[in-house]
Amino acid sequence: MKKNIQVAEKSKIWFAVSLILIAISIGSLFINGLNFGIDFIGGTIVTIELNTPFETSDAKALIEEYDTSADVTYAGEAKTQVIISTKKDLSTEERQALFSKFQEKYNLEDTDLLSIDTVSPSIGAEMANSAMIAAVVAVLLMLVYITFRFEFMFGLAAVIALIHDLIIVLGVYSIFQIQVNSPLIAAMLTILGYSINDTIVVFDRIRENRPKFGKYDFASLVDTSVTQTLRRSINTSFTTLLAIGALYAFGVPAVQDFALPLMVGIVSGTYSSIFIASALWCKIKEFQASKRAAVKN
Amino acid sequence: MSKQKTNSKTKSGMLLILITLFIALVGYVLFSGVSVGVYDIGNVSNNINYGLDLTGGVNVVLEAQATDDDPVTAEKIESAMLTIRQRIDTLGVSEPTITKQGDNRIRVSIPSVSDQEEALDLIGKTAQLEFVGPDGTVILTGKDVVDSKGVMQTDSTGLEKAVVTLKFSEEGTKLFADATQKYIGQAIQIKLDDEIISSPTVNVAITNGEAVIEGIGDIEEAGNLASLIRGGALPVKLVPIEVRTVGPTLGQNSLDKSIYAGMIGIGLVLIFMLIFYRGLGIIADMALIIFIIIFMIILTALNVTLTLPGIAGLILTIGMAVDANVIIFERIKEEARLGKSLLTAIDAGFSRAFSTILDSNVTTLIAGFVLFFLGSGSVQGFAVTLILGILVSMFTAVVITKQLVILLVKTELFKSNTFYGI
After folding, report:
1. Which residues pair with B99 in a beta bridge?
2. Which B residues in the span 28-67 are in contact with A, Cβ-Cβ below 8 Å?
3. Cα B145 to Cα A265: distance, rounded to the nearest angstrom
4. A100 to each of A57, A80, A96, how far by Cα in Å?
5. Nearest alpha carbon to residue B144 among B190, B183, B100
6. N or C: which end of chain A has fewer CB within 10 A?
7. What does the pLDDT read at residue A1?
8. Where does the record place the SecDF P1 head subdomain domain (chain B) (predicted)?
9. CA torsion, points A192, A197, A201, A206, in degrees to nearest 10?
């Protein structure tokens, strides 16, 4: 008989690891905050192909008139592209004038204007709001479904594990000051779906194994079930990581914005479905059982 | 060994080979395309509806600004959308999408337009044309104009200059005739959105209902101004609150890179399954290829717009598509370890794994649907491929894989459990 992984037995260790990670994440969120991109705070990002290497100071000189605090960075394989980001949402006229200046200096075609993103600040707050609503709606619906198919306590444990994953993803964004734009919202909601998928597979096995164990032997029940599904949890997360990792390594920035939080979320989600969700359920059940016993006495 | 059994073995083997060939053929037709006579069949990449981030284009969200005496109404938004459509049509670009967002917003998407800033300029301008007399009275407005063109005209000095011609309606003709009669020798201001673009001096009363606007930069500008005037003024002031444009080269580059990255991702998953599950891995890989084929066909058939986030969603579901197979295969292994025969273990593995797969996928579907209904733009594109991917993968992983595994076992070509990774 294979030895069981001690999830419930040593739950204190796993909870401690998670609590430390969550504390670091929340601490960083309070101290460093998040590095919000234009999707949230508004602004303009213009990318221009200059067809030649350039000095950022030259580019800065051309932009000064519109915004002195604009950021200028290189892009493209040969570093011939300039990315201009300002916190101002430039008007159509201003952008046209800006591009004309570059056009004149570097002798550019119209098509060398690779991309423009302008967002007015008012949109950001709305988006953050609707994302919160989406997350809450998704979690409530999942809770209802899990209660219906399993029991409420499974749902509660799963939701706590989810919140754990989301805090850690946000923490990574805060610690490394990665820019937060709208793809993160979609990614967070996908993590909701993905991480709960993992958790459900474990719970499903607990549900199935339950008759084989004593009424109050929650710890062995959990440890056996987690052990039985361990290979699946790891293999599935690994294949998904392979696919998403390839997107991150070889994809374009717009796709990387999705891939990165998904990768963090998948790792955290795998950890939480193996070590946190079932152990939590076990603790809740043990607590309920001891309370019931206390009432009887 | 009985003859009947040998027959069934050969039959299973033949069937498996046929299915493999069929997948290869469909895959080839789908991704490379073939020409039969004058018909080009397949080549799915030409038939997919790509989003603006992959083809290049302009995407802008306009917000109607209400003033105290001029509230934003649904009728005004509708009429503004119509005007914007007319203006874009003059650019001669294909299929703009103009949709209403919320109560006071309009989203305009124009694919592959060469001069993007020009398009932006054209979309958002109120284009309120006014002829104002020297005493400040408004003589007539853009509403009184029935036609307008940008043309080259020789002026009094013999130079060719770009002008905008105007043709007034019956009422406009009368108003203009009266005004030019009244203001002979004085200047009339022609204003566009409160900006004076020309202020000609009236020499004679103009009664034929025609006028020209001079002082225009070049013929292109004249053409644009004429089409703005023809399309009429927007009934409400619109401010662009979100503008996103992608140049055509960048779009194509994004698509190529994403396909390349996706291929590597798929390749890695295929190899992993093969190494880890051996015989069953071959089947899982076949199922995954079938999944991709079905997914692409549905994507094309439903005319879903594929965006960059959509590609991310697709790759994510590829990772998840093998999940169902992993669950099933691990279950088969467990059942086999209990001493069951291969076929019994397979049967038990599939039926026991089903509820797991259902419950775990429904929860992910919930997230997908919430994203679809509450998200916007790029988030929705991601949600569509996620939902589609989950549904198709459940079918391929559960139904198709099962039949393929049973066929493979029935061929009895591979009898050792090691081949099945058990």
Report:
1. B107
2. 53, 61
3. 60
4. 18, 18, 6
5. B190
6. N
7. 46
8. 137-236
9. 30
- Is the pLDDT at B78 greater than 70? The verdict is yes
**Alpha-carbon gap: A5 to the closest alpha carbon of chain B (Å):** 17
Q: What chain A residue is nearest to B244 in terms of C-alpha separation?
A: A117
* Surface of B (148-167) touching A: CB under 8 A: none
DSSP secondary structure string for all residues of A258-274: HHHHHHHHHHHHHHIII
Cα B401 to Cα A164: distance, rounded to the nearest angstrom? 35
Report which of B347, B294, B337, B333 is spatially closest to residue B317, judged by C-alpha positions: B294
**Longest distance between any two alpha carbons in chain B, whole Å:** 115
Buried b (16+ CB within 10 A) or exposed e, B368-403: bbbbbebbebbbbbbbbbbbbbbbbbbbbbbebbbe
Cα of B350 to nearest chain A Cα, Å: 15
pLDDT (average), residues B170-192: 86
> Mean pLDDT per 10-residue run, chain A (297 residues)?
76 91 94 87 86 83 80 80 83 82 84 83 77 85 90 92 92 90 80 85 90 85 91 88 90 83 92 91 90 78
Q: Which residue has the tokens 């009275």?
A: B137
Of A198-212, B91-105, B261-275, B345-359, which range is least confident? B91-105
Tokens 């909701």 — which residue?
A192
Where b means 16+ CB within 10 Å and e means fewer, B206-225 reads beebebbbbebeeeeebbbb
Q: H-helix or E-strand containing B233?
A: none
Q: Which residue do the tokens 């459940």 mark?
A: B394
Q: What's the whole-number mean pLDDT along residues B123-129?
A: 79
Distance (Å) from the C-alpha of residue A241 to the closest C-alpha of chain B?
7
- Whether B355 has its CB under 8 Å from any CB of chain A: the answer is yes
Domains in chain B, start-ordered, CATH in brackets?
Answer: 52-246 (3.30.1360.200), 247-411 (1.20.1640.10)
Is B311 part of the contact surface with chain A (CB cutoff 8 Å)? yes
Q: In chain B, count H helices and then E strands.
A: 12, 15
Across the range B380-408, mean pLDDT stands at 86
In sequence order, the β-bridge partners of residue A119 are A43, B242
Which of B255, B60, B64 lies closest to A95 in space, CA to CA? B60
Between the alpha carbon of residue B128 and those of residues B70, B71, B175, the distances in Å are: 15, 18, 18
The angle formed by the CA atoms of residues A76, A79 and A81, to the nearest 5 degrees, is 65
pLDDT for residue A270: 92
Residues A202 and A273 sit within 8 Å (Cβ to Cβ):
yes
**Of A169, A136, A142, A170, whose CA–CA distance to A158 is shortest?**
A142
Report the SS3 class of residue A275: helix
State the pTM of this model. 0.78
> Can you tell me the distance from the alpha carbon of A137 to that of A139, in angstroms, rounded to the nearest whole number?
6
pLDDT at position A215 is 78
Residue B209, CB half-sphere, CA atoms under 13 Å: how many?
A: 13
Residue range B127-140: mean pLDDT, rounded:
83
Which residue in B111, B124, B122 sits closest to B58, CA to CA?
B111
Residue with tokens 């190494």: B275
Give the pLDDT confidence score for residue B164 in this predicted structure.
86
* Residue percentage of chain B with pLDDT more than 90: 2
| Residue A115 to residue B247, Cβ atoms within 8 A | yes
- Rounded to whole angstroms, the Cα distance separating A205 from A199 reads 10
The tokens of B20 are what? 């493999």
